[in-house]
Structures are given as structure tokens and as C-alpha cells.
């Protein structure tokens, strides 16, 4: 199994609040968290800003409880799309998008859910847990998403806050489970305060309520999160196999150098 | 209706196993010593003696004699594979080592058994980078995320010039250096030589003694047990499962109400808990952590030297021997 990860901690402007969230997550045993920057297209024109690197935001990262390693902090971008034109942002080669480790999309209609599962280049598809689903899940797009390595995200903090949302969370999650059979699920918090965070084993137990098996539920907080991160990393490489690294040179111009083995081939 | 599927799973607890056997301490085929020897890594030993106000002297002196153990910080794994270490500690006496502050279901873990086998439990990325041969973990499922590598340090073909040794040293030193904090214990068989304290630099190693606590529980009602009745007799004596549950509650200081009247007891229990994050439980059976990492055994010894041995394991564990 991989280390536990919480892929949705809302990144607000409050640095102190974020620091206390990080410390709570580290104390609970999470080895990695992702700070979520949300873009909602319904509001007035929003731009994708460059995410601050974790080392700038947090001078010292807390140590994960029970180990001697520090917690890993990643950047994530979530796009709330309610219109097909909003997806154009993903297709554009905006430089700032490449700075995020994980890209997620929150589709609001059935057509957009289909587009997100089949064509969009994202890592996570968020499932609405705060209101009744406006559409039913269909097997074909969900299966295509599973084949492409896209994961479905379920949040658990709304269920803690309100009992009506608790009902919607459970019913939406169960209807998703009936289609995807527990595969490719990631559970995360979207916690704004440290009190709303729950330990990874508790979240895995919540997965049992949704209908996952013991191993699927534990994977939803560990192995599947790791797979999502790797999926995000492949976006920065060619076919997921070749990485390019900018090597600083004494000459003014910047060049990208290919890994040694590829160079040898072209020389031969 | 489809809704029943998730509810059915809720009624099932994660898999756990309790094995009970009874025997006599002086019996020729009694395996009590073998059981204790085979369970290499133990983090807690508890005694429960009913009807006993003060601790007997014999027990007090035995407990006081318990040896020390060592905490080594930032030890590179390849140091345990060097022939100097093997000849000084592994071959002379029994050396136990276990990584400290590592979780068996999340991180890489290493353990050195007294038999000379080094067990590495590594995650998928580390295994692929390390380049040593291992087998997938039994509790991994379809997508293997954990691998177990076993290196036999006492193997005659593991001498300093062999290819095997060179490969292992290269993998652990250069290919993927691994560093851990270790808990070490060494039982010298009497031969002269350096000790662990003198082998490792002073700032790295720390000597520790186990913490001992005594507590007297008053007004605790103890179950009646009959040594030849493992299943218990209704109204007369308790079964092993009931005793196990009661013992768990007592050792965790849970307040409960099991019996109506106090009854005299003629037995005592010795419970030994294994580490939750150890890669092995008994001998070399793989141990994993699903929602709990229990691997413990409990001796119930009666006045006539009959004993019951209960061995309990959690979800990701083999059946105890």
C-alpha cells in the first residue's frame, strides 16, 4: 500500500489556517496533501494563477505522526464547468496549468460528465455530494474513464457538516458504486478547518458504508491517490516515459536536454 | 434490491483469527518454548495474576533482569549486510533488529531475525528501483503494491566474494540507499568480542530499558477456568474465547460487568504483544496491517502446570503455527 493522502484541502488566502490544517493532517497520519485552487466559471472572468510553491508558503512542514518524514504538499486545480466552452481552458496550452500537480474537473451536467470522462485531459472527476445528482451515471463513460486512469472523487466533509448533505453523499456514492464497482475512487476531505479532518482509517471505514470492499476502501485513501499523482505527472512528460529537464547552462540561452539514452540513439 | 449489498458488508468485521491449544508444560511434545522463540518481535508483555495482592519475589527479580535494547538512528541498511557486522553479531548469538517509526502498510520496513534472515518489506517504487529479487506480498491483491525481499545472511554462499553479496551490497549502498532508525537487541552467547555500543558511533546509538509498570486491580471478578475444558461448561467455567475477551477488556482498563459473584481462580496469564508494524509474525510468516496489526499470544498457566496457549492475529496475517 502507498502512504495515505488527502487530495483536497481548500487553498485559501489564510496562511495560518492552512498551516494548522497541515499540522492536523500530519498528526492524523497523512503523508501527502494537495492544496486545491478552485476556478468557478460562473463567476466573473477568472484566470488561472500560478500556484505558490509549498516551500514558500510553509517554512517548515510538519512531520507525519509515526514516521520521521515530513508531509508532502502538492498543488491541485479544480475547474467547475457548467458549459462546454469552459473546457477550452484545459485544451489551451496555458503555461500556468502545467505548474499544478493534479487537475480536476467538476462537471455539472450529464453532457459535461461524458466529455470529462472520455476526452478531457484531467486526473480527477469530482462527484457532487451536496445536492441530488441532476443526472444518472451511465456505464459507458464511467468505463472509459476507468480505462483512461481517471479517478472519481468523493468528499466527506459535507457529510460531517449537515445531515441533508449526509443523505445525498451516501446516495450519490452508492449509485456511483453500482456502476463502477468500487474501482477508481478517491475519497478526500475539502476540510476548511482542522476539526473537519478525519483519520485515514476512519475515511476507509466510510468507504465501507458506500459499498466498497475492505481493500477497495483502504485503496481509496492510499493507492488510488498515488495513482492519481502519477497520472498527473505523466502530463508533464512524453507518453509517460520520457522526461525533459531544463539544465542550467553558462550560456544565456536555455536548452532542454534529452535523457542520455535517447541521445545515444540519435547519434547512432 | 441492490441496496442490500453494502449493508451486508457492514455486518462483517475485518477478518481476525484466534487459535487455542492446550498442553502441559512438562509434556515431551509441549511447544511452549518453541512458540516463544518463534515470535521474534514483541513490544509488550503483560502478566495478570488473580487473587494476588503483592508480586512474588521470583517474578520481581526476573523482570528486573530483563536486558536492554538499543535505538540506532539513521542507520544505512547496507551496514547490516557487511561481513564485519555479520561475523561480529549475527553469527555469534542472536541479533534482533526492527525498523522504528515505519508503518508496514505505508513505508519500507526491514527486520533482522535471530536466524540470520534479513527481511525487507518494500513498496512498489522502492522494489523496482532496488533491483533485488523478492516476491509480491500475500496481502496485496490484484495490483501488487508491496514486495518482500528475504536475504539469508547465514547462507554459506553469501561469503564476501560471492556475486550474491556484491549484488546486495551494490543495491543497498549505491542503487537505492535506504536509511532507517532501528531497534536492536543482541544476545551474546558468551564469546568475547565488541558490543553494539562499541561498534556504532556514540551519537547514533542509545541504550534503552523496557518500561515496567505494576498495577493492582481491586474488586475485579475473574473467570473460573477448568484446565481440561477449552470450550467451557455453561454455569461452571468459561471458554477460551470468553477468557480472551475478558482479558482484552482488563488489559485495556475498560470497565465492564461480566460476572455476578466473585469466584476463586487458580491460574495466571502471560500476554505477549507483537509489534503492529513488524513485517513478520511467527517465524517468517508475513504480517500486514489492514485496520489493525495485532499478532499476540497469551499463555494461561494453571496450578498443575497445564497451560492454554491462545494466538491471535488480525486481518493480513497467516494462521499462527
From TrEMBL, chain A:
Gene3D superfamilies reported for this sequence: Metal-dependent hydrolases
Subcellular location: Nucleus
Keyword annotations: tRNA processing
Signal peptide range: none
InterPro entries: Pol/histidinol_Pase-like (IPR016195), RNase_P_p30 (IPR002738)
Superkingdom classification of source: Eukaryota
Main location per the UniProt record: nucleus
Family: Belongs to the eukaryotic/archaeal RNase P protein component 3 family.
Identification of the protein by name: Ribonuclease P protein subunit p30
Species for this entry: Apteryx mantelli (North Island brown kiwi)
Taxonomic placement: Eukaryota, Metazoa, Chordata, Craniata, Vertebrata
Name of the coding gene: RPP30
From TrEMBL, chain B:
Record InterPro entries: RNase_P_Rpp40 (IPR013893)
Protein name, per record: Ribonuclease P protein subunit p40 isoform X2
Gene that specifies this protein: RPP40
